């Protein structure tokens, strides 16, 4: 009991509460600005956290982390630009709701979903932390490679009415991810290596510029086509109701619970990230709504399509902390920085943390809870103001989006000006490609997933085959990887059958 | 009958896939370090596989799938095409000149030009003097606000150091103070200029937008998040 009380008092004091609030505001700003990531925010706050106590420092960093994850939904819903990869799936129904004049409700729904996702995963973190951590240990290279395959096939099948277009875009994303240097032998894999060996292309294509270009710049160019209409979206007609009714939330119980489970589980698997979780939860929600008469069909601009990925991406925050705290393995890049903050303070995660610094574990739980409460509070007030960005005429908004997109891409490299300028160019070129692909009704999300999962797939695929002494059947001999292969086959075959039935 | 954009894209991807497959086979297939037995599939395996998947799916889209439905999409009007082209052209120029001219100059010119031309229905040559006057005024206004901001920040730093008040040396605090002072000056300038030149809203509006956006981005990205925005010719 004493560690619990100690953890509580470490967090619930004026200084720490203010620090969490500050971190939360900073995180929301970071998340809503393209190119500024949660990892960057946490890294920037590290020097401040060193001067604080262990618990207060972690609380500040967790505030930034939660804020950034939830803030990414704001530009995704209002402008179709995901602030970071966590919000890719939110774009579909979020932007469609904005175009229907329901931006306020979409944002309100996203806030509630983020809160529920965060709290839900926190409960799972507190209850099942050791158990889930043990389960994630079963994931070797073969399982991870197959998980990446599931992510790729599911996104290819759900993001387009046409599977072949989804597969083509996923493969295109993979080709982009494979550019640069081979992860195992460091040999160059770029065209015309003599020409480009000393350029930033040798390091490959960064995810954030690709994301900003494909979603942000392409959307800005599409918006320009409606420049005569004046505004991006119709004037807000339902400004008085921002949050969905309790009844509606209750009706979505299954989507919420499943998304919490998916987010926490995926977050707990090191190196996977929220992007797989959001698409898996979106796909699950699609199936749930198809069977239900009370819920709306996803893809048409409905709240269910915003709630599912937003619950999942916030659930990842708790999930990613499971291996970080119990095994010392970070779930994603943000938790890697959080982990380094603990290590610098002399705290060793894993068994030692639970046996010697149990109060700190409880403090982290309380800090995560407080971060979620602040996220709800700040977003609650912000939701009334964020949609006002839509009243800015397209003629003004598009140049501002273009500059923000390019500077966002530039910001990733921080201080390396040449590489940063290269990233701006990548964003712009991919923006133009994305514009034409959208015009041809090709889905964009599989490209981004291809870029995200390409590296993970290749590394684990090769490692698995090598560990199996060159045996390619290794993926079929392990139960988890076999289950994933079956799942990806189902995700490809089912839409094909459905298309056939529709055709007949 | 011309190709639909969807089939045209599939055709481009066929060409790209062929190029990519040739490129993949040209990669030296190296195995991971410590793999003496040659169990690693090598660095060429995944690129080659991906190339063939891309080729197969793009061929399928081009030959079979898309003949079924050729959609008649609304055509873009020539003036809208011109607007998109101007925006694109300036974006490429922005990237190209960013390191040479620097963030402040590039961003001001970019935003001013686009906001100015995006709002005009008929772009005519006679608007050039007004555009150039506005551009010069906008650039000067931004430079004044930026220089003032730099002065305030430096003053706060040196004051903080001499008085040992660490708050003034904090970049977030100095950015916040600078923001409030500049916002006040900016609003006063907007108020005065609007009263002074009531009929020149065409020109004044893009100036204010360009200056405001440039300075806010500079404060957030450059000062708070320490992004090294290229200085270019504005060396101070």
The tally of strands of chain A reads 2
Beta-strand content bin of chain B = under 5%
Please provide the ordered H/E string of secondary-structure elements of chain B: HHHHHHH
Q: What is the overall pLDDT average of chain B?
A: 85
Identify the quaternary structure here: heterodimer
Secondary-structure topology with pairs:
The complex is a heterodimer of chains A (504) and B (236).
Chain A: H1 2-11, H2 14-32, H3 38-50, H4 54-71, H5 73-79, H6 90-99, H7 103-136, H8 141-158, H9 163-178, E1 180-181, E2 188-189, H10 193-196, H11 207-224, H12 246-251, H13 253-268, H14 274-291, H15 303-326, H16 333-344, H17 351-356, H18 358-382, H19 394-411, H20 417-439, H21 445-467, H22 474-477, H23 479-503
Antiparallel strand pairs in A: 1-2
Helix pairs in contact in A: 1-18, 2-4, 2-18, 3-4, 3-16, 4-15, 4-16, 4-18, 5-6, 5-7, 6-7, 6-15, 7-13, 7-15, 7-18, 8-9, 8-14, 8-21, 8-23, 9-21, 11-19, 11-20, 13-14, 13-15, 14-15, 19-20
Chain B: H1 5-26, H2 45-63, H3 78-101, H4 103-118, H5 128-163, H6 171-196, H7 201-224
Helix pairs in contact in B: 1-2, 3-4, 4-5, 4-7, 5-6, 5-7, 6-7
Describe this structure in words.
The complex is a heterodimer of chains A (504) and B (236). With 504 residues, chain A is mainly alpha-helical. Helix content of chain A is 73%, strand content 1%. Chain A has 23 helices and two strands. In chain A, helix 11 (207-224) runs antiparallel to helix 19 (394-411). The longest helix of chain A has 34 residues, at 103-136. The mean pLDDT of chain A is 82. Chain B has two domains: 5-67; 78-224, no CATH class. Helices cover 71% and strands 0% of the residues of chain B. Chain B has helices at 5-26, 45-63, 78-101, 103-118, 128-163, 171-196, 201-224. The longest helix of chain B has 36 residues, at 128-163. Chains A and B meet through helix 9, helix 11, helix 19, helix 20 and helix 21 of A and helix 1, helix 2, helix 3, helix 4 and helix 7 of B.
């Amino acid at each position: 009991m004493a560690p619990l009380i100690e953890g509580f008092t470490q967090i619930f004091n004026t200084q720490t509460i203010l620090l969490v609030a500050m971190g939360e505001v900073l995180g929301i700003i970071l998340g809503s600005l393209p190119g500024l990531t949660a990892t960057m925010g946490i890294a920037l706050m590290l020097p401040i956290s060193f001067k604080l106590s262990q618990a207060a420092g972690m609380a500040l960093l967790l505030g930034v982390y939660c804020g950034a994850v939830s803030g990414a939904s704001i530009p995704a819903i209002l402008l179709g630009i995901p602030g970071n990869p966590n919000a890719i799936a939110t774009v579909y129904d979020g932007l469609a709701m904005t175009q229907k004049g329901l931006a306020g409700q979409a944002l309100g729904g996203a806030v509630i979903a983020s809160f529920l996702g965060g709290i839900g995963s926190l409960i799972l973190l507190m209850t099942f932390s050791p158990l889930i951590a043990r389960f994630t240990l079963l994931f070797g290279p073969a399982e991870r490679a197959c998980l990446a395959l599931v992510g790729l096939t599911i996104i290819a099948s759900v993001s387009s009415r046409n599977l072949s277009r989804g597969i083509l875009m996923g493969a295109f994303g993979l080709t982009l991810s494979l550019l640069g240097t081979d992860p195992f032998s460091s040999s160059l894999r770029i065209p015309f290596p003599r020409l480009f060996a000393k350029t930033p292309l040798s390091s490959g294509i960064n995810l954030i510029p690709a994301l900003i270009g494909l979603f942000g710049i392409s959307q800005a160019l599409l918006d320009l086509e409606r420049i005569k209409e004046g505004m991006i979206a119709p004037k807000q007609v339902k400004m008085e109701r921002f949050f969905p009714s309790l009844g509606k939330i209750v009706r979505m119980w299954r989507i919420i619970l499943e998304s919490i489970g998916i987010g926490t589980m995926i977050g707990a698997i090191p190196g996977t990230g929220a992007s797989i979780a959001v698409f898996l939860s979106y796909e699950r929600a699609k199936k749930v709504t198809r069977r239900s008469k009370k819920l709306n069909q996803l893809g048409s601009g409905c709240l269910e399509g915003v709630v599912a990925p937003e619950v999942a991406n916030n659930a990842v925050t708790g999930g990613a902390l499971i291996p970080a705290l119990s095994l010392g393995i970070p779930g994603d890049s943000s938790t890697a920085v959080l982990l380094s903050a603990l290590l610098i303070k002399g705290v060793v995660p894993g068994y030692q943390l639970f046996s010697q610094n149990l109060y700190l574990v409880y403090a982290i739980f309380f800090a995560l809870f407080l971060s979620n409460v602040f996220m709800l509070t700040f977003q609650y007030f912000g939701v009334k103001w964020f949609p006002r960005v839509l009243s800015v005429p397209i003629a003004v908004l598009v140049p501002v989006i273009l500059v923000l997109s390019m500077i966002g891409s530039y910001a990733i490299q921080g201080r390396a000006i040449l590489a940063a300028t290269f990233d701006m160019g990548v964003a712009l070129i991919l923006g133009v490609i994305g514009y034409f692909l959208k015009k041809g009704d090709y889905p964009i999300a599989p490209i981004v997933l291809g870029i995200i999962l390409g590296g993970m797939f290749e590394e684990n695929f090769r490692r698995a085959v090598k560990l199996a002494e060159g045996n390619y059947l290794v993926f079929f001999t392990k139960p988890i990887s076999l289950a994933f292969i079956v799942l990806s086959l189902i995700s490809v075959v089912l839409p094909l059958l459905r298309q056939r039935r529709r055709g007949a | 009958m011309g190709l639909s954009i969807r089939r045209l894209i599939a055709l481009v991807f066929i060409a790209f896939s062929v190029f990519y497959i040739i490129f993949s086979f040209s990669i030296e297939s190296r195995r991971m370090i410590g793999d003496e037995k040659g169990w690693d599939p090598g660095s060429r395996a995944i690129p080659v596989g991906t190339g063939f998947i891309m080729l197969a799916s793009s061929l399928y889209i081009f030959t079979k799938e898309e003949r079924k439905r050729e959609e008649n999409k609304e055509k873009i009007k020539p003036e809208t095409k011109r607007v998109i082209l101007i925006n694109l052209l300036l974006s490429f120029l922005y990237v190209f000149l960013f390191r040479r001219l620097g963030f402040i100059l590039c961003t001001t010119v970019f935003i001013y030009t686009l906001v100015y031309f995006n709002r005009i229905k008929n772009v005519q040559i006679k608007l050039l003097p007004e555009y150039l006057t506005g551009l010069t005024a906008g650039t000067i206004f931004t430079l004044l606000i930026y220089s003032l901001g730099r002065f305030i920040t430096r003053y706060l730093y040196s004051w903080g150091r001499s008085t040992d008040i660490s708050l003034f040396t904090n970049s977030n605090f100095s950015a916040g103070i600078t923001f409030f002072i500049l916002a006040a000056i900016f609003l006063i300038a907007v108020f005065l200029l609007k009263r002074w030149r009531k009929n020149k809203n065409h020109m004044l509006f893009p100036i204010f937008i360009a200056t405001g956006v440039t300075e806010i981005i500079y404060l957030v990205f450059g000062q708070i998040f320490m992004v090294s925005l290229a200085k270019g010719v504005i060396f101070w």
